[in-house]
Specification:
Elements (H helix, E strand, L loop, with lengths): L4 H9 L6 H23 L6 H28 L10 E3 L2 E3 L4 H27 L3 E4 L4 E4 L12 H26 L3 H25 L6 H7 L17 H27 L26 H33 L10 H14 L3 H21 L5 H31 L5 H18 L10 H5 L16 H26 L7 E2 L2 H17 L9 H16 E2 L2
Helix pairs in contact: 2-3, 2-5, 2-8, 3-5, 4-5, 4-15, 5-17, 8-9, 8-10, 9-10, 9-11, 9-16, 9-17, 10-11, 10-12, 11-12, 11-16, 13-15, 15-17
């Protein structure tokens, strides 16, 4: 059947070329995201000023690139092809019934992001005091008590610059992930052409005079499904590449940590001896505190396992539908997941090991339920995987870990009980607005007993957020987290199976549980990875 001129013009309009400047901005965004993923853990967890400001600069550049892409879209009238946005089938625009709901959710999250940043910035400008650490004293200022305020202006201002950069990173990553690659755009264009031709053929068949009314109803029945990717295809290319980079980098990180532990060196990366935790048992990999390394890896291994399960499922469908083997590289993810999941136990971090041991049966339940229709041999091989994780980690780290678990309650959680008691007094005295973001180190000395240690962290991120941000700030942060976790329940986005999303939820849940007994979210690299996974979740939706 020959196509009409209107069809040709419509197809040509769908093939609008991407502006060169937009391509450059998109490519630079991808490079900076990959650099950030690789840099943050290897730069000793990004705990020093030089590494933090390096990441701040990178994140500001991402914000500039995001603003440039928005400006190009507005100035040139360019609308990039993106996952979850309305498309056309046969010349008719197809709107998602719940697309407006997702747009409202995204706008609410953006507004809350601005509110938290403004809350932090106002706390620094309206500071109650500035703490001078070298002189160990406060310099008090005039302030408005009904506005957010801080007892450590310098620390609050520094954390504001970090959070501003992380906000740029979060939204720039989401914007980049939703974009389609050239091959994906071409695939959609070919499918649209096929649908358009089918609709024209359908219309011509309907106009045939020899057809009865019953025949017209049969011919007019729509047979084509909504516009989507092939059921045998994995996740979009950009998302796959990003998760691959995160997983492989995590596997190298876990391997280096295990080798460093076996070697017995007390230098991070065999290069630097930290001032705090200068023994081999207290460190792991590039992290001077083994618990932080364990939390970072506990965030990673469920994601690695989820990507393996998703690519394996897609490869199995391709073999079934097309009778050929495709995409076998996903098997590399399996040993990576085993290594990363074993590392928190080998690190002898009590909290990290317990989170990993609790996550293994949950992950096995997800895998078994996903493979419930598979053969018994396949399910047995998956069970062997989790036994390997437990066996490998027990062989290398269980002896030292068991000794530490025996003293978990006899040592009052390494003195944390006293910190909790003192900090609850601070929370009760500053219930609504808190003492100011990042002001805990300065304010804690006023509430501890003279013979107690002056701790820099509360070892409970939930309580520390309540102390520094108050109930007002904590409520806004929890609302943002709820919006991100609930995003998958609404369509209009990157269609992802529940198993992949459940594994990301598992990683985030483990980090949040660990944050109740330690300070992982006060470490830049862990908070960065947490927000990266949240940005991915904000792009995913149910089918």
């Amino acid at each position: 059947m020959e196509t009409t001129g209107d069809d040709r013009r419509r197809w040509q309009s769908e093939r609008v070329r991407t502006p060169l400047t937009y391509k450059v901005c998109d490519g630079l965004t991808e490079i900076l995201i990959y650099f950030s993923v690789l840099f943050t853990p290897w730069a000793f967890g990004t705990t020093q000023d030089w590494s933090v400001w390096t990441m701040n600069t990178v994140c500001y550049l991402l914000g500039v690139l995001l603003g440039a892409k928005w400006l190009i879209r507005w100035w040139a009238g360019y609308k990039p092809s993106r996952w979850g946005e309305a498309g056309e089938i046969g010349g008719f625009r197809v709107e998602d019934a719940k697309q407006s709901t997702v747009l409202c959710l995204t706008r609410c999250l953006a507004i809350l992001t601005v509110i938290i940043l403004a809350y932090t910035f106002v706390s620094a400008l309206n500071a109650r005091a500035t703490f001078l650490p070298r002189e160990n004293r406060f310099v008090y200022h005039n302030y408005l008590p009904w506005l957010p305020h801080s007892y450590d202006r310098t620390a609050t201002l520094n954390i504001f610059w970090q959070y501003l950069g992380l906000a740029f990173f979060f939204w720039a990553t989401r914007d980049w992930l939703l974009g389609k690659t050239r091959k994906e755009r071409q695939g959609i264009t070919v499918e649209r052409r096929t649908r358009s031709r089918a609709s024209v053929t359908l219309a011509s068949e309907m106009r045939r005079p020899e057809l009865s009314s019953e025949d017209r109803e049969v011919v007019g029945t729509p047979h084509s499904p909504p516009l989507s990717r092939s059921p045998a295809s994995p996740l979009p290319a950009r998302l796959c590449r990003l998760v691959w980079v995160v997983c492989l980098n995590g596997a190298l990180l876990a391997l280096e940590g295990v080798l460093q532990r076996l070697d017995g060196t007390n230098k991070l990366l065999w290069l630097v001896m930290p001032q705090i935790n200068s023994t081999n048992e207290a460190q792991f990999g590039p992290y001077a505190y083994r618990s932080n390394a364990a939390t970072y890896l506990n965030l990673l291994w469920p994601v690695c396992l989820g990507l393996w399960l998703r690519l394996r499922s897609a490869s199995a469908r391709m073999r079934r539908h097309f009778e050929r083997v495709g995409g076998g590289s996903y098997v590399v993810l399996l040993p990576c997941a085993v290594l990363i999941a074993s590392a928190p136990i080998i690190s002898t971090s009590r909290g990290g090991a317990l989170i990993a041991l609790a996550g293994v049966p949950v992950a096995s339940g997800i895998v078994f339920f996903s493979a419930r229709r598979e053969r018994a041999l396949v399910r047995a091989s998956m069970l062997t995987l989790f036994l390997v994780i437990l066996g490998f980690s027990a062989y290398l780290g269980w002896k030292d870990l068991a000794r530490r678990l025996e003293t978990m309650f006899s040592d009052d959680l390494s003195g944390r009980i006293q910190i909790y008691q003192n900090s609850r007094r601070i929370a009760e005295e500053f219930p609504i607005l808190g003492t100011g973001p990042a002001s805990f180190t300065a304010i804690y000395q006023l509430y501890k007993e003279p013979n107690q240690v002056w701790d820099a962290y509360l070892h409970d991120d939930w309580l520390e957020t309540r102390v520094t941000y108050g109930w007002a700030g904590l409520g806004a942060i929890l609302t943002m987290l709820g919006l991100v976790l609930g995003r998958w329940c609404f369509p209009s986005g990157i269609a992802a199976p529940w198993e992949f999303v459940a594994f990301i939820w598992l990683g985030l849940a483990g980090c949040l549980v660990h944050a109740k007994f330690d300070f992982p979210l006060q470490i830049y690299s862990i908070l960065f990875l947490f927000l990266l996974l949240c940005s991915i979740l904000l792009c995913l939706s149910r089918k």
